[in-house]
């Protein structure tokens, strides 16, 4: 049997952060699949092997011509952006997977086509599962997950933390429209608070220590050496209600308590993620979290939850969805 192949359409660049697509595709590669990851930034650079079994495509148009002429056979075509599902017909893969991971208003016009084009639908949150299940008969809830390499990894105090007195509160991520900078600012009035990430439409409050962007490989120390990590999202938006925050699972894997605004996805692990109904409650939960962070055994509990929710676990769900589809449909992959 030949090595099975999966093609990911251009949405983001391989080296840009390390998000759900890269995590899932890395699991495919580690399980013996050949992965073709099409970068969003196009250039004339040749195909580049970045990890065992993972090849970054820099010229999507050229690659698609090679696919059309039979140079590459694709078993699974994988899309995480509804608009990119327009490429499904050009690939003629044996299985089309659409992974519904966000609910952005600008994407809505493409959703129906993407869903109808998919053989298998994945969803990253309960809300998205409920929505897509009304549109498709083969939908699977596959939440975001924790990186297993974090769970037993020793951490080093970041140099920026060394001169901070008192408990450290951290917000790591993008400051987008869904983020409450008001809450971050209020927390910073009481506790030293750091921001690691990208200003994505909102500015870091002036009383917060802005450490800028870091490579994904560096984030672990900023999580693990903080006393509390924050997820201060605006829960009145569908963007938030449909979100499965990757950072929550990374906090858990680092053994750090989380304080989050309350919606279904943050309410799943109450022993390690404290959720708040309103602004006042959020600030109270930060106080509670700082006290809990000092309790012996807490980090072990957070890591226990993470170990049950790794990307390896999520891959097994996807692998089973593919196996079930092949049995039902008679499609043969890897041949």
UniProtKB/TrEMBL annotation:
GO terms for molecular function: transferase activity. Pfam families: Glyco_trans_1_2. Keywords: Transferase. Residues 184-319 form the Spore protein YkvP/CgeB glycosyl transferase-like domain. It comes from the Bacteria. The keyword Transferase applies. Gene3D superfamilies: Glycogen Phosphorylase B. This is Glycosyl transferase family 1. It comes from Paenibacillus barcinonensis.
């Amino acid at each position: 049997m030949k090595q099975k192949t999966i093609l990911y359409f251009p949405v983001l660049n391989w080296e840009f952060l390390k998000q759900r697509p890269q995590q899932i595709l890395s699991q495919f590669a580690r399980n013996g699949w050949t992965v073709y990851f099409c970068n969003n930034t196009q250039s004339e650079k040749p195909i580049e092997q970045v990890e065992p079994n993972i090849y970054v495509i820099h010229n999507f148009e050229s690659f698609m011509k090679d696919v059309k002429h039979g140079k590459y056979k694709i078993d699974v075509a994988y899309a995480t952006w509804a608009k990119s599902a327009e490429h499904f017909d050009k690939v003629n893969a044996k299985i089309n997977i659409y992974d519904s991971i966000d609910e952005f208003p600008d994407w809505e016009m493409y959703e129906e086509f993407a869903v109808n084009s998919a053989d298998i639908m994945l969803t990253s949150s309960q809300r998205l599962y409920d929505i897509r299940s009304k549109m498709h008969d083969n939908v699977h809830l596959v939440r975001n997950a924790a990186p297993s390499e974090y769970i037993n990894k020793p951490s080093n105090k970041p140099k920026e933390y060394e001169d901070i007195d008192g408990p450290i509160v951290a917000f790591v991520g993008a400051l987008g429209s869904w983020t409450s900078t008001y809450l971050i600012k209020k927390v910073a009035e009481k506790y030293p608070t750091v921001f690691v990430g990208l200003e994505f439409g909102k500015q870091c409050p002036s009383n917060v220590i802005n450490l800028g962007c870091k490579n994904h490989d560096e984030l672990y120390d900023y999580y693990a050496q903080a006393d509390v990590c924050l997820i201060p999202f605006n829960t009145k938006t569908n963007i938030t209600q449909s979100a499965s925050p990757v950072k929550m699972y990374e906090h858990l894997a680092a053994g750090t308590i989380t304080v989050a605004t309350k919606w279904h996805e943050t309410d799943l692990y109450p022993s390690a993620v404290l959720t708040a109904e309103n602004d006042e409650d959020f600030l109270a939960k930060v106080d509670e979290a700082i006290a809990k962070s000092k309790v012996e055994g807490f980090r072990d509990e957070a890591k226990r939850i993470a170990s049950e929710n790794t990307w390896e676990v999520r891959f097994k769900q996807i692998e089973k969805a593919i196996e079930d589809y092949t049995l039902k449909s008679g499609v043969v992959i890897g041949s």
